[in-house]
SET domain-containing protein
Amino acid sequence: MLSEEQITALRQQVASAIADELTRANISFDQFTELSASVEVEFREGPIDGSSVDPRPLSGLTISRVIDLTKVISPGSNTPPTHGEDSIATADNQNVEPTSGVIVPLSRSHTFVTPHDTPNQVLNHKGKNSTVDENIDTSDGEDDGNNSRMAISSLRPSRGGIPVVEDDTRRQMQVVDENFPKRRKAETVGYAMKPSSLDKLIIGIWEQLHSGANVDPAQILGEFISPPLLGDTTSPSQDMTGLSLSTELDNISLLGRQFNDTTVLCRKVTQASRTCRSIEVIVQARWVEHFDAYVEHLKVNDPKTSITRHRKTAAVESSSNFGWSEKELRNKMAIWRGYKEIKDAGGWAALVFAGMGIYRFCKYRIGFDNESMQRLRNLRPALEVAADTMNPNWRRLLSIVGEPPERVYSGHPHDWVVCLDGSPPIQLRKTYLQWDPYFEYKHIEESVIDQATWGCDDPRWKSSSEALTRVSSLFVCQDCSSEQSDDPKLNCCYCFPSLFGCATLTPPPVQVFRTPDGRNNGLMALCAFERGAPVGEFVGLITKGLQDVDVMENIVGSTKYQIWQGRQGNFTRFVNHSCNANAQYQRFTWLDTQRIILVSKGIEAGSEITVDYSDQYWKGLDKKCRKCHHGA
Ligand SMILES: C[S@@+](CC[C@H](N)C(=O)[O-])C[C@H]1O[C@@H](n2cnc3c(N)ncnc32)[C@H](O)[C@@H]1O
């Protein structure tokens, strides 16, 4: 019998051996939530190098255990999701005025007043009373001491190491250039994506929707006619060594044209095949409905015969029409029924944009339960907003099954605020009218220079000696030292490939959503963003001297400028604060011009995207973080 100490030593030895093996195995556990491990132990006699070991175990298998690792892998799995705070929710939304979008500059001519238009007597985090102006200030420590800016509060990118302290400023959000924090598990909000088959299906839908995939019947009706690819001209493999220079050049340009033509043809066929696949699942889902209706009809006409018998009759009739055996039809029908159930819950958009993943999901039916279908039901309006606004013709596919082809949601994808509980989306402007009856928001992809202020100059441009030290006329990335160009063929900088210098830019998978805890709107990540991946650029009006509004203030050399998203900008305008943020703002220089990028710190699919506005931002404001309940 082993002593207590020997058992402890044995336990440690076995545990550390398993841990070593696990490290070597390099398994990605991220995709599992209900993980268990099966451990088998045998004891053997002899040295471990195997030179003279008796390969037979002492007494066969000593132990065999299955260990539940769920709690180790997902320690927070029992934590209620954020939307459990529903009780505070919608009514509360009336109370928190989202500052940056609703306050207009005093210097501009709007006359309405919101609670944040005037200085407020407020409590800061330490409970101290202070009077503040409602602004955002973002000067970044290279302050020239100009106190007129002190009253402006800000979303403020700061340079690493340079203190960002202006005691009188508020609403400063800091950009952290250094000490990129370790990835943290992000909280999920309403959609609460967990790694399962349904999640894969949903993420597949979002990815298709944001991939630039063109689901348009016109694509398959359009021409596939392309110049002859083979036969009458030089094929790519033909030996050209004996050709004269001009013939050679002719052939090269011909090869180039052929290559481009083939690319176009290939693109058209790929798109057409994707569209056909969508038509296929639409028709198959509808066929199941007709099958059920027919069985119902048989039952009404012949109530004495069992429903099973009627089903068989209908199956036999249709299998001969399909040219399949009854069994084959039944197998297919089981999958098609899955398509119908997805359509019933998630709407036609879920079906059309599901891609190939839907087949496996319906074949194996893992996670095909009431809870999953409820999740799809809640997602339905959000999916339709994305589908209608990004793929305006997709509903025309539905005319094949007699559904209305007109889209329901028009405008920009972020003109709609989706609700986590599946209730109808709200027009963006309506979510601000209570504070600003004139609210409107123009969606722009690039910042716009306020010419009244800057003329033709872009204050973000690094005209300083920094830029002039370049050896050639090429632009060089300050981070990776590679050449930058808007021409994808010349560009070598891949710091933020989804934003700069690459051939295709696809819209980021994000949506504006209604927060359930009184923060008005927020930004939802539909798919995961890896740590370090850009979500988008902070764009708006490049201006200066605004007071009493939320602005991002920045500095290049000695030039200060502001980015104001009050009336125009992009989705970054809806990013809320969290003390536990999963994203942050970073500076980046593209073609010698400063840009501010929203970068992921590890954002999970289905989470709200947040940044830490920093204490500076909240300083002196009568607000607590409603996301984390800090700073009450
Ligand atoms: C840049 S906007 C963010 C989008 C905003 N929620 C909206 O609906 O327009 C900043 C404003 O959102 C609100 N906000 C953001 N994060 C918050 C938080 N954690 N707690 C409370 N309010 C927050 C505040 O009103 C803040 O002034």
Q: What stands out?
A: Residues 206 and 526 are 7 Å apart (CA to CA). Confidence is low (pLDDT under 50) at residues 75-95, 99-169, 226-240. Residues 4-73 form one domain.
